[in-house]
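Journal club side-thread
Mid-discussion, someone asked how the predicted structure for our own chain would compare to the paper's figures. Pasting it here so we can look after the session.
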Amino acid sequence: MALIRLLILDLDGVMTTGELPYTAAGQETKAFYVQDGGAIRLWQSAGGSVAIISGRDSKAVIARAKDLDIHLVIQGVPDKTPAYERVCQEVGVSDKEVGVVGDDLLDLALLRRCGYPIAVANAIPRVKRAARYVTRREGGQGAVTEVVERLLRSNGTWTDTMAPWQV
């Protein structure tokens, strides 16, 4: 397997639990798992790139991406393939160097195309069947953290990346 250099994340159901809560004023809110944010930063510190491709549009996504220095964010795209191609071209990677994490039908085309397809534990059965790996943890509850560790280990960079925090 090639080294994974780009991690593409779906948002709802992967970075969040997939719930869509609304305030009384009708504004959508999102909750993100703080450990997943730390894992994304760890991935970036090891030289990996991160992109978010989501079928829905949300201002909360922009704020979270800014917090995590994720500059590749494409939202509101029910057909994610053109966004995938654009991100891969911008990062300069081939399909085999891409890991995609998804949970729903909109993610299937990317999972079938990338080098390392991953489904979260709460993914629909069809997505799980398309994945090489299914996380034990659900989206929005540490699945991204699990994915980052798995990819760093697979890339052979886990020990060096973790060295500053070893006690």
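Post-session note: The chain has a mean pLDDT of 94.
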